[in-house]
Amino acid sequence: EDQVTQSPEALRLQEGESSSLNCSYTVSGLRGLFWYRQDPGKGPEFLFTLYSAGEEKEKERLKATLTKKESFLHITAPKPEDSATYLCAVQAGTASKLTFGTGTRLQVTL
Amino acid sequence: GAGVSQSPRYKVAKRGQDVALRCDPISGHVSLFWYQQALGQGPEFLTYFQNEAQLDKSGLPSDRFFAERPEGSVSTLKIQRTQQEDSAVYLCASSLEVVGEKLFFGSGTQLSVL
User: Fold this and answer.
1) Chain A within 8 Å of B34 (Cβ-Cβ)?
2) Per-residue model confidence as pLDDT tens digits over A18-33
């Protein structure tokens, strides 16, 4: 069974204080690893897809990386508007579904 | 519309009632997914449609849960004889491609069973 574990569960940063979120996974035949952002009362919003170890993608202050066992979401000089829950998900084997982790709740304060 | 639309936004049901949740995906999107999200948890897969065909319903928790997408666009998730443990946010997502990688989610229906 596919498993996705995210850490930490919650993270509080000051504006400008860079950090990383971790997503470790156990799957059979990874096809893709996904990062989504979820604001309160909203559905998840797509950020990145990573397909193979060593791949990196960037968007504004966010950078996602992938190894054979885990992915990191690096947040550089965060702003309060980056506050949200960040979800990691995997797609594996022949299945079309995504298996999500429980997320990291990020709060960025002034 | 510009995005995935779900209705109602909130639903309160008495235990034992039947409910129907609607999803309007982005026009032209082939793939449609339903997920269940409990408070403080990540979304959990319920079922997947490719056009009107339900290709995967392995996540439906019991035979009280039923989903359909008869014309390959709008989908309805029906829950019969609701129980308190059914209380959650039900998310619908659609994707342009068959593989369903980049998902566009609606804001969900928050179901509370009293």
Assistant:
1) no
2) 999 999 999 989 999 9
